[in-house]
Design a protein that fits this description.
This protein is an alpha/beta fold and 435 residues long. The strands form two sheets. The protein has an eight-stranded mixed beta sheet, with helices on both faces. A six-stranded parallel beta sheet has the order 11-10-9-12-13-14, covered by helices on one side. The protein contains 14 helices and 14 strands. It folds into three domains: 193 residues, NAD(P)-binding Rossmann-like Domain (Rossmann fold); 88 residues, N-(1-d-carboxylethyl)-l-norvaline Dehydrogenase, domain 2, CATH 1.10.1040.10; 132 residues, NAD(P)-binding Rossmann-like Domain (Rossmann fold, 3-Layer(aba) Sandwich). Helix 1 packs across helix 3, helix 8 crosses helix 10 and helix 10 runs antiparallel to helix 11.
């Protein structure tokens, strides 16, 4: 078997590994997807993907001839390149739980072929690659291999598109001046994007730098959106002017909402703050971001108190969206879940989400079968997730179904329909309420 047709191993079949492995195979390159969990492997082989991503099932069907999933780690010995692609869990204190990643790497190192190109794609803190070299030296003294760190830049809910057409590959290397091994270089070149090489520590810090910038943008938008609502300005009118400025750009992260959620951005802020503390770097800026986003959720509670609870102390409340963002099944750090838990028995809550079933959650709420059914006789609707299913909803149904047509749009999905909301109290971030 030549290097060109030998398989590439993807180790760890969580969200990152599944999407990245299938994308790699879609270019006609053999892939072995390895995970020690037999239930995960069996489900994927049967087409029951454990992650929700638009287009992923279709991509798997297209790539089936090139990808094989297995619980047999010895199959990785046939792979000249092995990519560790296990997602790193976030602990309740927003720190990384690296134990599963270390365990998985320790499991596969003994079976890797001599001279293997080992790539870590999992999101790890600065210093991980150097620590991994020390671990491998202990596990296999004298073992010949090349280690690289590939910065993961997938976006949950848009992972397939970004996996197939990344903006660039950011690669951490022992020596960035040297060319990548041929099999790895040719694999990355198939994507048709730039390859940026740098040192291990620079690459590890790059991912957190990206997320810090995004968290800053979210905070920036929220602060100014609140100011707009107070001075009778409209944030939606301001955004196009900002995006036309070359220093900001058309893809700027400027939509206000309930702050960062999902776990990854929160984890990176915590990691960066700890890293700065260890090296004596001032953390005032990061502390401000963490503090603002911790309190941003209270905007939703404040609007509910003002527009729903003041009129009915025990209202019927409709909730649209439970996941922390659209196109995912993840409830990690979900503002909607937190809201329902905080309300408890103070409201008769009925909720709907396109992918979350009643059996998926344990909440003091009735999980309904449709977005229309939650509206019946409701005293208010609060939209917590930016699912596309909410964008085109007919405002007439709101007027006819709800006892009091009050809509608190925390994610701005109905902003485009604001001209059609006569007779509906519409409250969103970045503008005065429409009454």
């Amino acid at each position: 078997m030549t290097a060109t047709n030998a398989p590439t191993g993807f180790v760890g079949l969580s969200h990152l590994g599944i999407v990245s492995g299938i994308a790699w195979a879609s270019f006609g390159r053999p892939v072995i997807g390895y995970d020690p969990d037999a239930a995960i492997v069996e489900a994927i082989e049967q087409g029951n993907l454990p992650v929700h991503e638009p287009g992923l099932h279709e991509l798997l069907e297209q790539s089936k001839a090139w990808i094989h999933f297995s619980t047999d780690r010895t199959k990785l010995s046939a792979c000249p390149s092995v990519i560790v692609s296990l997602d790193v869990p976030t602990l309740p204190d927003n720190t990384s739980d690296l134990a599963p990643l270390w365990a998985l790497i320790g499991e596969i190192v003994p079976v890797l072929q001599t001279g293997v190109v080992l790539v870590v794609m999992s999101q790890v803190p600065t210093g991980f690659s150097r620590a991994l070299i020390q671990l491998i030296d202990k596990l296999r003294p004298g073992f010949s291999y090349a280690l690289y760190y590939c910065v993961e830049t997938l976006v949950i809910g848009n992972a397939v598109r970004r996996a197939l057409a990344p903006e660039r590959f950011i690669i951490g290397c022992a020596d960035p001046s040297l060319p990548l091994p041929e099999n790895l270089r040719e694999g990355f070149r198939s994507y048709g994007c730039p390859i940026i090489q740098m040192g291990y520590e620079s690459a590890e810090l790059t991912k957190m730098a990206i997320n810090l910038y995004l968290a800053s943008s979210v905070t920036y938008a929220n602060v100014l959106a609140d100011l707009c609502a107070s001075v009778n300005a409209d944030w939606s009118e301001i955004v196009p002017a900002l995006k036309s400025d070359q220093r900001i750009g058309p893809y700027a992260y400027l939509r206000p909402g309930l702050g960062i959620a999902g776990g990854n951005l929160e984890r990176d802020l915590t990691t960066l703050r700890d890293l700065c503390d260890r090296h004596g770097i001032d953390t005032t800026y990061i502390d401000a971001l963490v503090g603002h986003n911790a309190h941003r959720y209270h905007w939703a509670l404040s609007m509910l108190r003002q527009y729903v609870f003041e009129r009915n102390p025990v209202p019927k409340l409709a909730v649209w969206g439970l996941t922390y963002k659209k196109n995912t099944r993840s409830l990690k750090n979900s503002p909607a879940v937190r809201l329902i838990q905080d309300l408890g028995k103070r409201a008769d809550v009925r909720a709907w989400d396109p992918v979350v079933l009643a059996s998926d959650v344990d909440l003091p709420a009735q999980i309904m079968s449709s977005k229309e059914s939650v509206l019946e006789d409701a005293d208010g609707l609060i939209i917590m997730t930016d699912w596309d299913e909410f964008v085109g909803f007919d405002p007439d149904i709101l007027r006819s179904s709800m006892r009091r047509p009050v809509v608190i749009d925390c994610v701005g999905v109905m902003e485009a329909k604001s001209s059609r909301l006569a007779g509906i109290e519409y409250i969103s971030t970045g503008r005065r309420p429409l009454i």
